[in-house]
Amino acid sequence: MTRPNSARLLIVGPQGSGKGTQGVLVAEAFGAPQIATGDIFRANITGGTELGKRVQAIIEAGDLVSDELTCELVRDRLAQPDAAHGFLLDGFPRNLAQVDDLAEFLDSRGEALDAVIELRVPQDESIARLRQRAIDQGRTDDTEEVIANRLAIYERETAPILDVYRERGLALQIDGVGTLDEVTDRIFASLARRGLTPDADENGDNGDNGAAA
Ligand code: ADP
What we know:
Bound molecules: adenosine-5'-diphosphate
Strand order of the largest sheet: 2-3-1-4-5
Largest sheet: 5 strands, parallel
Number of domains: 1
Number of helices: 8
Number of strands: 5
Distance between the termini: 25 Å
Radius of gyration: 17 Å
CATH superfamily: P-loop containing nucleotide triphosphate hydrolases
CATH architecture: 3-Layer(aba) Sandwich
Order of helices and strands: EHEHHHEHEHHEH
């Protein structure tokens, strides 16, 4: 009705690809929550929660939190009312087991993904951006050694999930090199070619967010 068109989306890309920034913009346009597992973990660490204590050392080493813990966290989050009509997941799934878990969860609710935004950035560019982020944000997992570990895990565990989503015809390959606005425009244009367009009326003056490329 007056709700904006929503969508069930994933954004996948290597560390430093800009997926966090772009994900927020896309989620906002679709009136859907942006759910970033890394942000949820970091908030728990900062807040000193039980979950935070369990994951802190793992995250600081750049390793993956267990599938059991991560999948449960995501299921709980997706079951909340604000995600009933759509969501944008950032940082999940991150391996094939998590792909299966998500598919099973959505299936059980009679839901399915609409698209997977694949942000493509060459590794040297991605490393350069992470070095800059280390200076700007001081994230404890942005040291040289930990960055190398996270990128290696990305190549080994996360890149293969894109093969699955390509086979399922869900992957939208987006060139992530360019200005923030250029990349945003590419994403909205690609979504629009899929028929995934947020309702401009509901988003006030958001009608210029690139959907009309
Ligand atoms: P980045 O993409 O830059 O690595 P994130 O914020 O997505 O940053 O993730 C930070 C850390 O949180 C990861 O290195 C990992 O330890 C943990 N994490 C986030 N998402 C997941 C996930 N889906 N499965 C396991 N661990 C995760």
